[in-house]
Specification:
The chain is mainly α and 179 residues long. It contains ten helices and no strands. Helices cover 80% and strands 0% of the residues. The N and C termini lie far apart (53 Å).
Length: 179
């Protein structure tokens, strides 16, 4: 019993070491080294979704959206109750035009007490990618109306206003995003 705890602690230590090295490499723009380190972290602790999330970031930066999606889907499978994984997965599904899977994941995310503004932003992103600009605008406007809205929500709403030719209001929301 004690031996398995020691082995698990050693695996976690190896994972954290590799994660730190991977983050440094990612920050330096060395995607190959970041990829190697995050894979090492994944092998050291296969039941932790964190290395998979960071691997997905490397894949996105390389332009390999399909591999990024697969890594995030594996991460969610490992830890389906971790709400913080869903927005990343949903945005990747939207970026890869997997609209039905994105909608299903949003529904699961809703069940994890997701914030309304985050849900509105995700729906806005989904509809914007589908060129359903009116629906996107409704959701983005709701997202920026929430007091917990982040700068990304303001930028997304400004983008939809700009796309619709509402330049003065778009400029206002771009300004809010910068504060």
């Amino acid at each position: 019993r004690m031996g398995s705890k020691i082995k698990d602690a050693a695996g976690k230590a190896k994972m954290f070491d590799a994660m730190a090295k991977g983050e440094r490499a990612l920050k330096a723009g060395d995607l190959g080294e970041a990829h190697r380190q995050f894979l090492t972290a994944r092998q050291a602790q296969e039941n932790d979704p964190t290395p998979l999330v960071r691997l997905s970031e490397v894949m996105k930066r390389r332009g390999d959206m399909q591999s990024a999606r697969i890594s995030l889907q594996k991460a969610v499978k490992i830890a389906p109750a971790r709400a913080d994984l869903y927005p990343k997965l949903i945005r990747t599904l939207i970026d890869t035009y997997e609209f039905e899977d994105a909608k299903k994941s949003i529904e699961v995310y809703k069940g994890l007490n997701a914030s309304i503004s985050t849900l509105d932003r995700l729906y806005g992103d989904l509809y914007f990618k589908q060129q359903r600009l009116r629906e996107a605008q409704v959701y983005y406007k709701r997202a920026v109306g929430d007091t917990s809205a982040d700068s990304g929500s303001y930028t997304a709403y400004a983008n939809i206003l700009f796309a619709g030719g509402i330049f003065r209001e778009a400029a206002f929301y771009y300004g809010l995003a910068l504060r």
